[in-house]
């Protein structure tokens, strides 16, 4: 059933095109549900913290997020599976930012620091076509911003402000991971104090 588990890699045009909203009446359709099922299977197979539909060559506005004992993202708390259909991010005025060391299944073996907002509001539809608005804070907000960027045609590499932070995953683990963990603790404490 899941023969094609390939992920679009940097340079493929589909990653640069803004995805299309799914009509509300089509959310419960077999086609939409199959896309979501394939996304979940692909994300879990490759140990992703999330995945956008265009990463599996589907030009629609769906992303998924999940972190459950993920060996690639030990610094993230558990995030139960979330399906976001037609998500939109609203940035709170004057919210704090944080430099997040990010990687991506579409940009293998590379990490770099990206400035992310500490607190965001996200509006999206569930698989049952129910509209949800949530406030997402802290490290969890990084994953949401990364995945929704994909849906708008952006990769994390577009948002790296200092190219000297670009490192291979192996070098990230060897030289930068311990320091980054300390930065994350500070980031989390700031997020907890946000209203």
Structural descriptors:
195 residues, alpha+beta, Peptide Deformylase, five-stranded antiparallel β-sheet, two-stranded antiparallel ribbon, 3 helices, 27% helix, 28% strand
Q: Would you kindly provide a brief summary of this structure?
A:
With 195 residues, the protein is an alpha+beta fold.
| Overall pLDDT | 91
Give the neighbour order of strands across the main sheet. Answer: 1-2-3-6-7
CATH homologous superfamily classification: Peptide deformylase
Task: Give the C-alpha Rg.
Answer: 16 Å
- Let me know the largest β-sheet: 5 strands, antiparallel
Q: What is the 3D form?
A: globular
Helix content: 25-40%
What structural class is derived from the secondary structure elements? alpha+beta
The portion of residues forming beta strands comes to 25-35%
User: What is the CATH architecture annotation?
Assistant: Alpha-Beta Complex
Kindly, what is the distance between the CA atoms of the first and last residues, rounded to a whole number of angstroms? 45 Å
Give the topology string: H per helix, E per strand.
HEEEEEEEHH
Number of contiguous helices: 3
- Total number of β-strand segments? 7
């Amino acid at each position: 059933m899941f023969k094609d588990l390939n992920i679009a890699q940097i340079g493929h045009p589909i990653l640069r095109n803004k995805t299309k909203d799914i009509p509300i009446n089509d959310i419960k359709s077999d086609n939409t549900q199959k896309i979501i099922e394939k996304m979940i299977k692909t994300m879990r197979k490759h140990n992703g913290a999330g995945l956008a539909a265009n990463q599996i060559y589907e030009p629609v506005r769906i992303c998924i997020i999940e972190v459950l004992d993920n060996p690639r993202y030990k610094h993230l708390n558990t995030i139960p599976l979330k399906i976001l259909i037609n998500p939109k991010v609203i940035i709170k005025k004057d919210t704090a930012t944080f430099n997040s060391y990010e990687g991506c299944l579409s940009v293998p073996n590379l990490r770099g620091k990206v400035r992310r907002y500490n607190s965001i509001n996200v509006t999206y539809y569930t698989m049952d076509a129910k509209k949800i608005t949530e406030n997402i804070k802290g490290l969890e907000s990084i994953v949401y911003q990364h995945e929704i960027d994909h849906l708008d045609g952006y990769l994390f590499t577009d948002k790296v402000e200092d190219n000297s932070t670009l490192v291979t995953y192996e070098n990230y683990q060897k030289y930068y991971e311990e320091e980054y963990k300390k930065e994350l603790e500070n980031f989390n404490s700031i997020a907890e104090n946000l209203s």
